[in-house]
Structure prediction request, 147 residues.
Amino acid sequence: MTAMKYLIYVSQAVHPMRQEELADILQHSRKWNTQHGVTGVLIYRYLPDEKRGNFLQLIEGDETVIDRCWERIAADERHHTKVVLETGATDVRMFPDWSMGFRNIEHDELSRFEGYTDLGSQDFWDRAQTGSLPEALELMKSFYTDD
Ligand SMILES: Cc1cc2nc3c(=O)[nH]c(=O)nc-3n(C[C@H](O)[C@H](O)[C@H](O)COP(=O)(O)O)c2cc1C
Prediction:
């Protein structure tokens, strides 16, 4: 068995995403992920004050596949300012049933997670770009349900 890894990143949408645009990203992602054994979760958050959409995503799978998947994601011009927050090895999938889970979240859903409550604000992005955000793994896992 080859080693598995996960990768978590944040990015900014080029413009606030319409439902159809999010659905298109998910459809393409789920197709490729299913074919290549990638699982994970994508979080989208729009901040009205900044008029900006933000992505937070975790992908997991075979090491080489995750590198390829990240290349696909990084090459996509629907978002920019991509900052990898964390990568690591994993023996067991954290999102076994999700080719790509999706949540469009509100402010208060992140209130438990220090460093992420203001996800998308300028202050958040300053912290992200100086590498001073706390780990996001528990936050990502908190969205997973297997029913
Ligand atoms: C926020 C975001 C998340 C993405 N997540 C994935 C993903 O999980 N898996 C994937 O293969 N591509 C992902 N992509 C990339 C695109 O969906 C994909 O490269 C694009 O639709 C082109 O796909 P195609 O070459 O199969 O047509 C993502 C793109 C964006 C903007």
The chain has one domain: 4-141.
